[in-house]
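Fill in residues.
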């Protein structure tokens, strides 16, 4: 369920887009608008993922030899971050943990590999409600935006937004 503020933002975005605003004020128009807003944003707009399985990081391009070079404290940070099986990249402290763990110059490619897994492309509606640059992640852990709305928008939300006077 969208908040009143989100619905107002959605209404303004629809009104500002000629193709969306031209849709009829009925359920067919709302379905068409929702379908368009649920498409991947172009140009590319990246967001931090809200949740990620640890295996996706550790089994896809992770340089395991870099773990051998960690101090006991840094290894403990990494272990605690990965222990639950799920990591929450959208949280700033998680990204800071990666930087603290793999902070030396030799770990640049490892950081980038991790941060690349931490991001994904946003849909048009997610972009509308995201804060940040929306660029691809760098090895410094910056670039993607943080979402305040995640997922698909339904036609009912579009109808609600368009009905606001």
């Amino acid at each position: 369920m969208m908040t009143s503020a989100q619905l107002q933002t959605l209404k303004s975005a629809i009104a500002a887009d000629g193709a969306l605003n031209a849709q009829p004020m009925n359920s067919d128009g709302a379905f068409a608008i929702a379908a368009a807003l649920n498409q991947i944003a172009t140009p590319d707009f990246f967001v931090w993922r809200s949740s990620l399985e640890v295996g996706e990081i550790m089994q896809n391009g992770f340089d395991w030899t870099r773990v051998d070079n960690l101090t006991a404290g840094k290894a403990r940070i990494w272990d605690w971050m990965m222990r639950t099986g799920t990591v929450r990249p959208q949280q700033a402290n998680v990204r800071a943990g990666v930087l603290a763990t793999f902070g030396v110059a030799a770990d640049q490619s490892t950081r980038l590999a991790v941060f690349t897994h931490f991001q994904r492309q946003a849909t048009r509606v997610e972009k509308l409600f995201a804060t940040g640059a929306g660029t691809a992640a760098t090895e410094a852990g910056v670039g993607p935006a943080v979402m305040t709305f995640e997922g698909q928008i339904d036609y009912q939300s579009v109808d609600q937004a368009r009905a606001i006077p």
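The longest strand covers residues 46-48.
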